[in-house]
Amino acid sequence: MSINVLGISAYYHDSAAALVRDGEIIAAAQEERFSRKKHDHRFPAQAIEYCLREGRITSAELDYVGFYDKPVTKSTRLLDTYLSYAPRGLVSFKKAIPLWIKEKLHIPRHIRSALGKRFRGSLVFVEHHESHAASAFFPSPFEEAAIMTLDGVGEWATGSLGYGSGNRITLTHEMRFPHSVGLLYSAFTYYLGFQVNEGEYKVMGLAPYGKPSYTDLILERLMDLKPDGSLRMDMDFFNYCQGLTMTSQAFHDLFGGPPRRPESPLTQRHMDIAASVQKVTEEAMLRGARHLHDLTGMKNLTLAGGVALNCVGNGRLQREGPFERIWVQPAAGDAGGSLGVALFIWHQLLGHARRALPSDAQCGSLLGPQSSNEEVCSFLDSVHATYQHFPDEQSLLERVARFLSQEKVIGWFQGRAEFGPRALGSRSIIGDARSARMQSIMNLKVKFRESFRPFAPCVLKEHAADWFETRPDEDSPYMLFVAPIRSEKRLPPDAIGADGRPLTGIDLLKTRRSLIPAVTHVDYSARIQTVDRERHGRFRRLMEKFYEITGCPVIVNTSFNLGWDPIVSSPKDAYDTFMVSDMDVLVLENYVLVKDEQPAVRQQPVLAQGGSINDSLLDEIWICPKCGGAIARRNGAALSCRDCGQEFPVTDGISQLFWPHDGIAGDGDVTETVKEFYEKNPFPNYDQTDSVRGLIEKSRLHIYPRLLGEQIPFNSRVLEVGCGTGQLTNFLSIGCRNVVGADMCLNSLRLGEEFRRKQGLQRARFLQVNLFRPCFREKAFDLVLCNGVLHHTSDPLGGFQSVITLLRPGGHIVVGLYNAYGRLMMNTRQALLRLTNGRLRWIDTHLRTGGLGEAKANAWFMDQYRHPHESKHTVDEVLGWFERNDIEFVNAVPKLRWQDRFSPSEKLFDPAPRGTRLDRMLAELRSVATGSREGGFFIMIGRRRS
Length: 946
Description:
By secondary structure, the chain is of the alpha/beta class. It is built from 32 helices and 32 strands.
């Protein structure tokens, strides 16, 4: 009878599950691939469910379940650390310990609860670095090998040395917290403005742009690096033991300033710091490997732990270290611990024999879920995609290889998904490595990430030594080693700018450095993946076809995801990513989609040369706001009405179609007053350093814009009334939607249009408009967003009735207003500030914390406390507007029933209960307290009845 062992890692970084049956790896996957939350650390319920499904078993058939570390031991380390630093660590203690008490000390109960009452197997807890070591040695192709593990921290250990032989591993030495190569690297990751446990790749990619000029400073002041690779850190420079940051003020003083603000410019100093910590890390890895070789005398080395993902360091170990062969666990971080603990149970605890396979036992790390052609077809039909089906593989590969040779960017979704952080030819974005523009296109338009980030080459295994400085028999199937480009494939350096000065820093990207520039880093290195027949199947055959067509055995390969998402797992994930990004082609098993053929793209407006407004997006929907006649153009620089002859200027690309309405003269209308106020006080949403990625990241930080971005269908035509500086308009246009931003304030619109033009956003347009005299045809839009506008007019209901005429039947309207209850606290503060002539600004939460910056703080103050006009409304009042105008209530933020809570995964456009009048009143009364923080704002979503 078979023995099934399930391994689990959870609660720190990448939660995962792995299933081993009779010593064979059946399945392994990270929870993030199912939850779609990057680096999801929660209990991996969905990953476990997948593993059981792939293994065709239930929890009742599990004999053993292993967890990758010992939570009680880890909690002891936490308590000891906090006591050592008390009382300085109180804030961190109060944040961390309740989580441990609530979740991490009850892991056995969580496991049994997740597996259900039918599970009768045994639970096993293995030390963290034993799990890493097991994941490194047991799947490796070696009968015996030395083992080195390095990461941030497990229970107490931060690194270990040992060896494996046959079916056993033995760890002989360890380095202990707080001294850690991984935490040292993470501290510099934090200091350089990147996210810890995610941005370490960025530091490694940034390092070649700098010089290691801070190396001596690090080695002399921050740490003592021993000859055996261990280190002792001066904890006066670090804050991770007792605080909520990685570095201390002493660290900042030593390196010349505070941590870099995310998305701010990268300077040469930052690049030099990255180069320095990378060099120190490589030196620690080399010293550790040499010491380990002296201890064991073995020829082979296996690596795991998060530091083993430092492929530059791995490359130096391979070229300069004492070992003949090196094997690195593809899921070297915490996720791989789930596989390690399962194999540890099978071999080490149960004593089963192990036979090393010549390639390895990792199955190419293709251990995740897959989708059938039938499932792909069903999904594509459900979203009305345009596709071509290729019944035979040869014609499919011929078509895709031709696309590659034409510099198309291709999403490639085939077979089982990869386990670990690298895309290895199953969930990949691929391109032509010979293209000089491919790196920039992929970084900025597809991945939406920093331009300096390098891409990896995939090379046919038998040609690797022809292009890279590797040994002829050297294997790198998991993209975990960096190797130099061979000298004969390099091009002479041309690092001189247009001004005749040498290029430095990020500007080095402008140089073409080799015959495969898309994968050649600025130091002539590349993170290679060798592609062979045994592991890589159809991906290998695609590369062979590309080689046949072009004579080049190298292509670009990067993970199939946007910068903020996990790697895609399902056809839906792949399709959504394809549509949002500038990918040209999507290949889902035997189905090929071309971006230009998709319904959502065929209607994409095309800007005329020079960024003029001559495009179909506006031509189809705008009309004269004065008489309703057709709009004509005059030399592309002005507009006029064909019927009444009224002319409208175009300023800085913005069509000024504002026309006053009949109520302005003499009846107290405030339109012109409000317009003048915003012209003088535009809200500065854009920073000088903004990029598309920065805009996306800022927008996704807040639940409401993130949900809009995820849930508004592709090809929707959207109008944002009162768009201000157009941040939301530009953000939504990235997702293959045509979005028009309309506002009264020309100064605000200029900011939005400047960003749109600079970033090349084709699907956004900005117009100066009066919402009471809209310049659009009736029923022109699928969605109208009207947030924060109507309460600054003299006739909110009239404005609402004006904009809903622009909504097609079945379309949605989103209305945001000040709530009569939620605004009470703000009105009290307004009165106090008027009495004190604005001297008590600290009574406002936003102004007191100082997180807005001076310009935005002043704009917030003027908008909230000096606005010339505002009105306040109730939920029932707006429900009445809906009913009188044939709008069906759909949803609200906050929810309309006092007992309901708005979820981070809320379906905005799915019907929600409206509750009773009492429910709604209680919900509004709650906003008296929350209004002090949110300005008393509420949102109502409705659907125009058909």
